[in-house]
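Input structure tokens:
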């Protein structure tokens, strides 16, 4: 039995197509969904309540607008042939959402189409919002995203090292970044306490 209903599957496909989501971003979201599925099912075995459809759908949507945050679009680094239409759409997304971040931008779009629960979940995967995580779905999506570097499952340590190299900007507060990284390790410990050891 599929975790995601046909209706949500269609929504995911439509949004991926509408925004011309790059293949490597889709690969990342698929791997995050895979980690979410493992953690979510493990939580359910421990008698914790997890909405698996909402969690998995959010994983498949969380980076739909990631291209709006790219500093540059280096066509050589993409795993696909880039069309003029792709470039046009991505340029428009970068112009419209570049200053608010892909998380808030996607949450706004999901709210507009009546998907408020999904919007809230997608908004919470923002690196800086760790203090706002409440339910298991929010915690699992946040953590799963931080465990996936491109399309590979890695340790938090490796992911944060790569993230610092790729995303660090002069305006970022390094002390705050380090504090959030520490909180992410505490979140990992929370999972370990529940499972005994991480299932992934």
């Amino acid at each position: 039995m599929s975790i995601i209903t046909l209706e949500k599957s269609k929504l995911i496909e439509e949004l991926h197509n509408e925004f011309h989501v790059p293949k490597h971003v889709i690969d990342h979201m698929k791997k995050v969904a895979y980690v979410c599925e493992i953690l979510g099912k493990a939580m359910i075995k421990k008698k914790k309540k997890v909405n698996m459809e909402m969690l998995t759908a959010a994983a498949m949507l969380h980076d739909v607008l990631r291209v709006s945050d790219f500093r540059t679009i280096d066509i050589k680094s993409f795993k696909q042939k880039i069309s003029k239409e792709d470039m046009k759409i991505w340029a428009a997304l970068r112009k419209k959402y570049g200053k608010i971040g892909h998380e808030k931008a996607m949450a706004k779009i999901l709210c507009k189409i009546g998907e408020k629960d999904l919007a809230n979940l997608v908004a919470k995967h923002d690196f800086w919002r760790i203090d706002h995580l409440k339910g298991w779905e929010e915690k699992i999506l946040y953590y799963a995203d931080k465990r996936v570097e491109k399309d590979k499952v890695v340790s938090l340590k490796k992911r944060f090292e790569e993230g610092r190299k790729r995303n660090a900007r002069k305006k970022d507060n390094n002390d705050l970044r380090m504090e959030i990284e520490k909180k992410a390790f505490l979140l990992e410990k929370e999972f370990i306490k529940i499972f005994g050891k991480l299932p992934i």
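DSSP finds nine helices and two strands in the chain. The chain has a mean pLDDT of 93.
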